[in-house]
Amino acid sequence: xxxxxxxxxxxxxxxxxxxxxxxxxxxxxxxxxxxxxxxxxxxxxxxxxxxxxxxxxxxxxxxxxxxxxxxxxxxxxxxxxxxxxxxxxxxxxxxxxxxxxxxxxxxxxxxxxxxxxxxxxxxxxxxxxxxxxxxxxxxxxxxxxxxxxxxxxxxxxxxxxxxxxxxxxxxxxxxxxxxxxxxxxxxxxxxxxxxxxxxxxxxxxxxxxxxxxxxxxxxxxxxxxxxxxxxxxxxxxxxxxxxxxxxxxxxxxxxxxxxxxxx
Amino acid sequence: xxxxxxxxxxxxxxxxxxxxxxxxxxxxxxxxxxxxxxxxxxxxxxxxxxxxxxxxxxxxxxxxxxxxxxxxxxxxxxxxxxxxxxxxxxxxxxxxxxxxxxxxxxxxxxxxxxxxxxxxxxxxxxxxxxxxxxxxxxxxxxxxxxxxxxxxxxxxxxxxxxxxxxxxxxxxxxxxxxxxxxxxxxxxxxxxxxxxxxxxxxxxxxxxxxxxxxxxxxxxxxxxxxxxxxxxxxxxxxxxxxxxxxxxxxxxxxxxxxxxxxx
Amino acid sequence: xxxxxxxxxxxxxxxxxxxxxxxxxxxxxxxxxxxxxxxxxxxxxxxxxxxxxxxxxxxxxxxxxxxxxxxxxxxxxxxxxxxxxxxxxxxxxxxxxxxxxxxxxxxxxxxxxxxxxxxxxxxxxxxxxxxxxxxxxxxxxxxxxxxxxxxxxxxxxxxxxxxxxxxxxxxxxxxxxxxxxxxxxxxxxxxxxxxxxxxxxxxxxxxxxxxxxxxxxxxxxxxxxxxxxxxxxxxxxxxxxxxxxxxxxxxxxxxxxxxxxxx
Lengths: 263, 263, 263
Known about the structure:
homotrimer, globular
């Protein structure tokens, strides 16, 4: 397995500056539970979110947006059709799209759907260890949305997956590992309190999509997304009395880092 | 173009008192992203929100509720049918309904749908400058949910729209302009931080619907809704460290103004 | 009518300890408006939420989860089919499922659906007074999601309902009454501010489902869920300046009581 290189705030700084200049418009086809938090996360960073869900409109909009997020958390037959239409439109316009394979491996419909999506050239895939393992192994079974594996255990799977489908793969946990199949960057940080708030991983995937829209090295862009969110999570956890106050602190931290960068 | 008259907290005060006495029940057929924030905004003000989405039930409920909100942010074929059934029931019972034409002009399905709705006697329409322009001009194209125009630029379009469909039209931005086609009220205030939180405009539209339920001059009632939300937004922005802490401060400010009025 | 016995923090303490050991995985088929708040409530308490909504996957997942929540707030035909599939799977695996009959009585589709569900052996039912009355009487009519009756008035209906369908019935309000048809526990507390935040009742129903997963006396387990949420609500209301700041305080209070128990 390849050795991982640390990727820190110093490394992400130029990407945050670039992000600030581009303020990507991100089309989010995500799950019912996290839409508001995902939108607020992107807005706090200075990006523009939009959720357009009807199949025909989703395709129209993906051709306008700078990036597309596909999150299968509350997948339905209807939504899966909108997702395919949006991906096709994004690919036709060479806009990057990112897959968040929530709970893949544990449930049949989404597992088949996610494996189908791997052949449609995702720019990046962001998941926990169980999810990344499930995308490469037939045997992995998750416990719903929680990871049963450490991110370390999925490093090899991430590398294999990146090589086979050409995407940047981010397997997130205590340490986030980001790989293009050749190099592997390790982003430390975050805080366990982030697992007590719904949608932190889903929101990170939206930020990954936004960073994929930048005209920059994509491996480092994805690692920058992880680093920015991880650091905001750490700051918010330090300031919060629990998961309730974590949420406003987290969005404020993203907003402040974005404004700091803008100076 | 008609001259605009300032509309301030002093003007909205009697409407807020009336609101407090009536505590309107508002049926919200709104988008997936903002439902919770919309409900919390109405509750903070002392109104009662309800989201009833199945077509038959939506029609039943619109005949019970005091006002109906139609927001097309995440429009689907199915939801559009529920909306039409709800509007028909509201009109039959002479209950006011309000249109929030999110991202109209940028996407075909919702653009056709919103234009169809203009003939169904909305009591009010609340949108940003791009949206109000798109409802009157064939050429306007938005960038998703963000406005590319200042609210000032859409003043003339608002006036034309109000005259053609008989609704009060509120075009909101740095200054909110509210017109019935004859008079135009200007509501100052708000704060740019409101654009970094998802759903502030959508929530305002729900408040507009609630104020339309009052037995009072509708032009001033709609301007009062804009004034109350704008002032709560300003107070919250002054107290907040960013968009995360803005949210609780905003709801608290609405709650406090409502309680102050009740004394 | 049976006499009610007080049920306090002292009584719920051993159940909270047990909860901490089991960290139930709760499958929530709930309404569109409250999904995020419901998930965050369960996470703050140390439980794991999951929302899996496609009918086939919902059935698969209910066989994995420790408990199932059915909330009809934004019921649709499609969602009702997923709910029936999930209930069938939960019953086949002897996993408890809980009904939150939002606005039952006021609207025909959900009223017929909820009455159908009563024959499918719910472990518990949690509603306000109007909802519990509507499940037992043909004449009751609610005003949407708000209760027109005090919880006291519905005590007899709760008892009748518990006896007829074999569920623990919790009718919540100023005082929460929890009955198995033979005994009735009374949980004091909470705060009126909780009615100014959307989804506090819905989130309580999810917590009730989680407590039903414990290997313990179910009457007391459901009363414990009510007691824990009620106490967190009281603490949050004492600390909050309004319904906006109530939300983070409420989640933090649940998190802190859970951590206190874990020591």
